[in-house]
Specification:
The protein is mostly helical. Helices cover 53% and strands 10% of the residues. The chain has 6 helices and 2 strands, in the order αββααααα. The chain has a two-stranded antiparallel ribbon with strand order 1-2. The chain is elongated and about 45 Å long. The model has no long low-confidence stretch (mean pLDDT 80).
Length: 115
């Protein structure tokens, strides 16, 4: 793709990783090599939470990214406002009480319980 549009591969990666995020309603799938591909999937508003996101996809997100994701779920009607506030409180506690290296595992556990 980078060769076709005459740019560096890192530029393509940057655009994919910053523009097509889970919190914006997208999932990017890719494979390198001769038979490689890039697939950008728009997450359906009607899909239930387990189909929309895997815990590993969001475990490394910063706090604001996770909060944006819960807002998107609320706007899509996947969760209620009460559930959004509850999840955001849990996210805040994870980021306030745990050291940075323990946060991804805690976010994975939280999302696994939600799913």
């Amino acid at each position: 793709l980078a060769g076709r549009i005459l740019c560096a591969p890192s530029q393509v990666s940057y655009v994919l990783n910053t523009r097509f995020t889970v919190e914006r309603g997208f999932k990017v799938e890719s494979r390198r090599g001769v038979n490689g591909f890039v697939r950008i999937v728009r997450l359906s508003e009607r899909q239930p939470l387990p189909e929309q996101v895997r815990a590993d996809d969001v475990a490394e997100m910063p706090r604001e990214g996770l909060r944006d994701l819960t807002l998107a779920w609320r706007r899509q009607g996947i969760i209620s406002e009460r559930e959004r506030r509850f999840i955001n409180t849990a996210i805040d506690l994870i980021f306030e009480k745990l050291p940075p290296d323990e946060r991804p595992a805690a976010v994975r556990r939280l999302l696994a319980e939600l799913i």
